[in-house]
Amino acid sequence: VKHLLGIRDLTAEDIEIIFQTADQFKEVLNRPIKKVPTLRDTTVVNLFFENSTRTRISFELAEKRLSADVVNFSAGVSSVKKGETLIDTVHNILAMKVDMVVMRHSASGAPHFLARHIPASVINAGDGINEHPTQALLDAYSIRERLGQVKGVRVAIIGDIMHSRVALSNIYCLKKLGAEVMVAGPPTLIPKYIEEALDVRVCYHVKDALAWCDVANVLRIQLERQNRPLFSSLREYNLYYGIKRSWIDALQKPIVIMHPGPINRGVELDSEVADSPQSIILQQVENGVAIRMAVLYLLAGKKESFS
Ligand code: CP
C-alpha cells in the first residue's frame, strides 16, 4: 500500500513525476468534459477532523473528476462526539470497503499512525503543525507554472512559521527542487532550530525579505494553535509584518504573491496586494485539483492511460 504522508519522504524525482502527471490532468480539466474513468473502481473517504474549505473541496472534486466513489466524513457530526476513537472510526469505515483515506487532523502524526494500522492508502491533508504535502506540491507547481522553473527561485515564506504545516512542507519541497528559501516574520513565530536543521535563511524584517525574494508566500497567524498570543495585537502585527501595497511598489521589481488561504485580510496581507495582478492565490487553488488528481492517480497505481 502506498501513502502520501509528507514531502520529507519524497525525492525530487517523485515530485517531478507528480508535476508531469498534474500537467496532463490540467489539460483534462480544460476540456468541456472534465471527467475521466480512471478511478471508477476506487472508493475514497475524506476524513476531516479539522475545518477546511479549499483542501476538502479540492480533494472531493479531484476524486469525482477521476470517477471515484466518494464519502465525506466530518468529525463534528460523527460518533467521534460520542467517544469513538480514531482507529475504531477508521476500521468501521474500512469495513464498508474503502480503498483510500484522505485525512486532516489536529494531531501531528495522526495520518502516520493510521497508515501503520490500516490496509488502505492514506493521504495527509494536513496534520497539526507537521505537514500539508499536497499544499506544498500545488504551491511549487504554481511557481513552476508562473516562473517556468523552481530551481534557483528565491522564495520567502512570511508569517507564522512556528505553527505552520504549510511552511514545513514548503521548505522540504522547495529545497528538494533547488529553490533558495528564506523564512521571515516575528522572532516569536520562527522556531530557533529552523535555520540550522532545515538550512534556510531567517529574516526578522519583512521589507528585507521582500527585497530579497522572487516569490513571497504569505501565511496566516494560526491563533487556534497558540495557547497564548505570541505578538501584542493583530493591528500591531499588520503594522510591522502585514504586506502592504506601498511596500510592494517600493521594490521596483516584480515579485509573485502567494497565500495558501484562508487569508486574514488586513492582518498578514492587505487586499490591494491579495487581489493584485502579482497575486497567484486563485491559480494555486485551481492547480490544487490537478495536483490532487495526480496524487490519487499515482497512489492508486494506475498504469493505463487516463485520457
Ligand atoms: N490551504 C488550506 O489548507 O485551506 P483549508 O484549510 O481551507 O483547507
Mind explaining what this structure looks like?
By secondary structure, the chain is an alpha/beta fold. It has twelve helices and nine strands. Helix 7 links the parallel strand 6 and strand 7 (201-203). Helix 2 crosses helix 12 (281-299), helix 5 (133-147) crosses helix 6 (165-176) and helix 5 packs across helix 12 (281-299). 43% of the residues are buried. Bound molecules: phosphoric acid mono(formamide)ester. Phosphoric acid mono(formamide)ester binds at residues 52-56, 126, 135, 260-262.
- Low-pLDDT runs: none
- Secondary-structure-based class equals alpha/beta
Total beta-strand segments? 9
Question: Percent of residues in helical segments?
Answer: 25-40%
Give the total of domains: 2
Ligand kinds:
phosphoric acid mono(formamide)ester
- Average pLDDT metric: 94
The assigned CATH architecture of the largest domain is 3-Layer(aba) Sandwich
Number of alpha- plus pi-helical segments: 12
Which structural traits does this protein have?
307 residues; five-stranded parallel sheet; single chain; Rossmann fold; four-stranded parallel sheet; 12 helices; alpha/beta; binds phosphoric acid mono(formamide)ester
